[in-house]
Amino acid sequence: MNEFIDTISRFPTVVFTAALAVVLVFWVLVLIGITDADGFEADADLGGLGLGGVPVTVAVSVYVTTGWLASLTGGVLVGRTDTTGVAHAALVLLVLAAALSGAWGLTRLLLRPLRALFPDEPGPSRLDFVGSTCTIRTGRVDGRFGQAEVVAEDGSTAIVQVRTSDPDPALSSGRTGLLYAYDVAGEFFWVAPFDAALDPRIRP
Is 172 helix (H, G, I), strand (E, B) or coil? Predict the structure, then answer.
């Protein structure tokens, strides 16, 4: 235990120890809601270092943690040698350089599977369907009942709840409707009959 305390409080590990303390305090503040994990996104871009694709705070946290572990390991090994003076100083600087470069390479490797958790574009939203056409899948649609199938931009389909304030025979199974609004509280779309001949995207 004494060896551990001595190593993390000596150069070069103490540099990473201080940085790790800042990282831990930051994530505690995130957990209790005082700050935002994405608060530094507009101020830094680590893509040029190969650390992009995830929030800056995640990349820095992984880098600091791996650097601390590498420096701790190197510091323990150097501490167990009998070197002194210039030779000892050279080994310490070598540990620092190895920790900095090794942490960078390991962080790039560790971030690869994490990038899938942080897509560049926001995920699909139900509001994206507003303005889309749909195919009615129930025998009728009224103010309390109705379902329709809608196709997303990626080609996938979804069954959504639809309602209309004025029941219309045109809104029956297999017919085409237009989703013109979304009710957040009720979690359904307002739908109206759609005439393909009126679609401005279709040329006569």
Answer: coil
